[in-house]
Structure formats: C-alpha cells, structure tokens
Amino acid sequence: MLRKAVIVARRLWGMRWLLQPGSSARLVARSGLFDAAFYRAEAGLAGRDDAACLSHYMGSGGPGGLRPHPLVDPDFIREQMRGRGGRNPLVAYLRSGWWRGVRPNRHFDPLFYLRTNPDIRLAGFEPLSHYASAGWREARMPSEDFDPEAYRAGHSLAEDEDPLSAALAAERGSHHDEADDEAGRVAPGPVGSADDPPASGEDGADEWAGLAPLPPGEGVPVDIVVPVYGGYAETVTTIRRVLEARNRRACELVVVEDAPPEAAIRAAVDGLVARGLATVLRNEANRGFVASANRGMALHPERDVVLLNADTEVFDGWLDRLAAHAGPRIGTITPLSNAATILSYPVRLRDNCMRLELSDRDLDGLAASLGPASCEVPTGIGFCMYVSRACLAEIGLFDEKAFGRGYGEENDFCRRAAARGWRNIGIGDLVVRHHAGLSFGPEKAARVAEAIAEVERRHPGYRALIDHFIRTDPVAALRQRLDEARIRRAVPDPVLVLGRSERCGADVIRLRPEYGPRFGLYRVEAEAAPVTPNLPSFGPATGEAELGEMLERLGIRRIEVGPDAPGRLSERIVAAARARGWGVSP
C-alpha cells in the first residue's frame, strides 16, 4: 500500500500544473490544445493575432462550442460530462475530465494513453497535450480502437499530417463512412527495415541463396545462439542478417530448432544444414525458449555467447562492437533497440514502430560512428544479449524450471550475476532492430506480469530498483547523442529559426515551445529528422555556455531571429552565437 501511495504521489506531483488554481486562459495556453491558426479559421477571425484569438475563445468561443484544436470536440466532451462541463468544455476536460476517463474526441482515450505509455505518466503530461505535441509523430496509439499507422496506410496523408486529426476532419465532413471507421482498426503488419529481403518459402524460393558460411575471424569464437520456433519471415530475416553482416571477431551461428509447427521453418533450417551455413541443434519436442537458449549456450563451454532473438536484424560490425565492451566482471552487454524497454530508442519504455528519416542499417551505422559509450543497467534484455562465459560458469544457465515459458529468465540471471559482483551494461554504439513480441503474440502481457512477479519474489526490491532506474534514466545520454547525430546527418548546414518565420526547407531547425509540465521551456526540432525526444529543453534560466555547446553539437552556425522570438532565451542564444562568430540575422 505504501509503495502504491508513493507512486500516486509522484504522478500527482508531476501533473501539479493541472491542479494549480489560476487563470483558465493560462491553463489552456499551457496545455498546447489551443491552436491559434486553427481557431482563427474556425471563428472567422482573419487578421487577429494569437492573443486576441485566445481571448475570443475564452470569452465567447469556448462557451459557444467552437473548437480550439483539431483534436478537441467540445460537444463530445459535454455529452460525457453530463452537466459538469461548465462554460468551457476544454477547461473542464483539463481540470478533471481526462483523469475521469472523459474522451476529448471519439478516438482518444486518455487513460489508455497513460496506461500504455509509462514515460508519459512519469513526465506528468496530460495525455492529449502530449499526443498533440509529440505523440502522433512517435506513432503512439491514441486508443484501442484507432490505429494511426493503419489509417495512414489506407489514406493519402502527408508525412507531417496527424492521422487522428485527419480522421476526425473526415468524419466531420461529407466523406465519412464505415470504411473510415474500419481503416483505423486494422492492425498494420510488422514494421521492418527498408533493407528487408523478400523472404517467402511458399513459392519454393531458396531463402539462403547467395549466402556463405561465416568466415574465420580473430580471437576466440563467440557463439551466436538463435532459438527458432515461430515466425517464418522474421526467422529467415534474422538468420540472413547474421550471415550477411561482416565482423572481424570469429563467431559461429548456432540455431536451436524448437520443434516449430510451421513446415516452412523446418524446411528453411534443413537448408541451413545442407549448405553448411550454421550449426543446428534440434529439439525432438518443443521445450520452450529458455531450454533452447540454455542448450545453445552450453554447446561450447569455453566461449562467450550472444543470445539473439529470431525476430531481430543486425548489420555490419555488430558483433565487434558488442564484444569490444567485454571485460573483467562485465556479465552482460545489451545494445539499444527500437523495442527494448529501458534501452528503447528513440522513445524509451515502449516499442517504437515509427519510421525515421534513415533506415535501420543507417541508424546502426550512425551509432557506430559515435564511438563506444555505455552505462550500467539493472538487467540485460534477451533480444540481443552478450553473456560472458566466465559469468555463465560462475552463475549458471537460465532457470528453466522457473522461467521455462519465456520472459523473466534474463532478469533473474542478471540479478543473480549482480549479487556476485558482475556488471550488466547497456551500450550506445549499436542499435539492433527488434520486431518485438512476435514469438508470444497476445500472451506477452500476461507472461511479462507473471515473470516480473517471480523475479520480485526471488530478488526482493527488484521493482523498486527498476523504478529508480527509470526515474534517474542513465540511458538518456546515449539516446541524446544519437538524436543529435541524426540532426547533424539530416541537416548538414542548418539555420536555427527563433520565432515566426516564412523560411522553410530541409536546412531549418526551429525552437518549439514545450507544453504541460514543461511549459515555459523550449526545445529544438528539425523537420528533416522527426522524433528526437531526447534533446534537452531550454528556458530563460539556461546559461549562455550551455546553449552554445548544445548548438555546436547540432552543427548550428547561423541564427535567424523572427517576430515573437522568446525574449531572454533568444537574447542568450544570439549572444552565444555572436561570441562564436556565427551569423545572426536580421
């Protein structure tokens, strides 16, 4: 009970900006849910400035049912609040509606959004405020009954267009029909890299054409252990990626076939054997992931191992970079990934399915170019985990009896290792694509809950350890440097625009206001590199030196100051630029 009370108190503290008394206009402005340009057209206020539009909305527009933002439906809010909506439905929603489960429109569920996005809960955002400012770009689901990526796939939308806003606009117009409803509910197929091979065994194609056995390398070989059960296309892609990737370190591919039900998978593994592409271990009956992983890790008692899921993608140099971090008392090493909970990138604690401006291969190459970087983590993550043989010899294999169905085995192993003085680290110079959850499908959530409960029973305080790690976020620096590198790559000769400007193009980086708990702060965004949530926010108190260093890391050498530029912050940015001899206009 005490732990739950502490968690609730932390969340309320994070969201205190919503609970403070004061001007309703200030609350609306801080929320980011008043879009002046949208409202100007909605209310017919051509020529009025943003402040006049907000004043009109708070005076008569809001009570009159005008919409302040494409995602806010005042009539729908009033229907749900049944007389508790007051004069202004948006204000009522922000004051109390969202945490009562009131939907601001028919496709956005605020409680679902918080439940499925723990990072937003921790940050203290009101759900719709976050979705409107960043969540849609990060391909976050607004509710169980609307899938933005499925809607985008079925409609002609611009890259910078929010699918939910487009769907709501279509429903308000004459083009709404049942097909629009259904399009938002169709789950998209697995999101993959632009490098995906056309793997299909049904047409008799040879999945392994053009591949050769892994070449001899340097040093003691590392075993790459890939347990195989389900997901034909993902399995073939994973194995192809391993065989195609060039590494200096000697290695051996060990495929553990766990009696898969798909004939295509069994035939593909037969092809590996026939071509001599891998060492194959076959279970006569299905034994589960943990037993299969243990069998592979036990094959060569003198070698370090990499446990690699059969729904991952790796690229040139991946093993070399993993192995380079090995050292005395380093037990496990785990890279960044689009789906790796505490090591997820670009958004932590979630499976990232959005497409970035570069391919998975190029993202990994960019991470490699930044050089080695690491931080200690409470647990490795088994989608791609390097395990020291010395650690295995001291700690033993995964606990098959307790975790035989999968999930939790690596958490238990890492905590056992930590208790013996071994370190678990996460690294920032390798990014592995992970098509998460394909092995267990809808069972995943239940299995995770059961596994974590068992880990907590065996290692009291495990949940508190993870909570502390999430709050302090030591991985933030690894994510931030990759965000910065993506912007440098996408915008090689940037100009930072402060305030309003008609300037647009691939060279533009803008200073955007934060909303919700970070109101009053600003962060840089580049349209050419969408979804960079790990860059720091700046405010009037940010020092000139810190601002200058950040702009240097982004490669900014030109500043353009327009109307409505944020006062003191802009002055400090300009001062930092002039001190470094950069161009400033006007």
TrEMBL record:
Residues 172-184 have a biased composition (Basic and acidic residues). Residues 171-214 are annotated as: Disordered. Keywords: Glycosyltransferase, Transferase. InterPro entries: Glyco_trans_2-like (IPR001173), Nucleotide-diphossugar_trans (IPR029044). Signal peptide: none annotated. Belongs to the glycosyltransferase 2 family. This is GT2 family glycosyltransferase.
